[in-house]
Amino acid sequence: MTGTVSVAASSAVSFSVKPKLGTAELLFNCAQSMGLSPVWLTPKAVFVIVVNGQERYINLARSPLNSASSAALAKNKYVTRRILERHKMPNIPFTIAHTSSEAEAFLKTHGTIVAKPVTGSGTRDIHIINKTTQLSKINVNQYILEKYIAGRELRFLILNSKVVGVHRSEYGTSVAKDRPLQRISFSKCDWDSSLVALSKRIAKIFSLKFVAIDYLIDDSQNAYILEINTMPGLKWFHAPSSGPVVNIAELFLESIVRSILSEQKVESNLDLLNSTFSYNEFGSATL
Known about the structure:
There is one protein chain. By secondary structure, the chain is α+β, with helices and mostly antiparallel strands. Among the domains are: about 60-90 and about 150-230, D-amino Acid Aminotransferase, Chain A, domain 1; about 95-150, ATP-grasp fold, A domain (Dna Ligase, domain 1). It is built from eight helices and 14 strands. The chain has helices at about 25-35, 70-75, 75-85, 100-110, 130-135, 195-205, 235-240, 250-275, and strands spanning about 40, 45-50, 55-60, 95, 115, 125-130, 145, 150-160, 160-170, 180-185, 210-215, 225-230, 280, 285. The strands form four sheets. The protein has a five-stranded antiparallel beta sheet, with helices on both faces. Strands 4-7-5-6 form a four-stranded antiparallel beta sheet, with helices on both faces. It has a three-stranded antiparallel beta sheet with strand order 1-2-3. Helix 1 (about 25-35) crosses helix 8 (about 250-275). It is globular.
């Protein structure tokens, strides 16, 4: 599986001086502008909105657009890798090592590996390992081990089966050190069509309505699925380092509003149906 994305120089507009609001603040402010009467329940984390008299809670820990089961599958990196493997996706070689000898064998095979917590996201508690002595410093059976592949990162953001934004992440030289993050936003004409199709397929396999698919592109332009994030941060889409802005907060909340109104319409139709028919003792409907 290969994927290349180029950015037209004319589309690069700097946003580096624009202040970046956190995801919670972006969503809350957008909900206010949409007249959804948001109220904070916990500081800068959970708030409630009201749509046509019905409340819906916005929690940064989990998108209300995704089911709990789908989010749980994607949160577990090992389960995610197994599902990707099952569907013959461009996976990074991986393993769960139950013993030190198994971890050492995986390291010997691949030369340099990455140890990641089985659950979680971001760069916390991630270790790049190229010596067996480094393995002794971690409890290997609490991590998923993956082959280390150098390359550039691309993020494809999916909302309701459509790609709504594509970014390239510039982290610098080391995942193990703090470094300034740059996010380059691509115009739609520069999106790689094969990765667009693959991203939509992944979202369908995991039954995710809102998800970011991260890819690693190596020097030979081979694409590997790096991570699936079911509640990605939104701030970089609103204030990228360069490139077009995507108002994902508004798109996200509009999707939630449509979902609530659709549920209310179904409930209304069911109430009408129940008022039209009565049921006898055998469960058969009669007028």
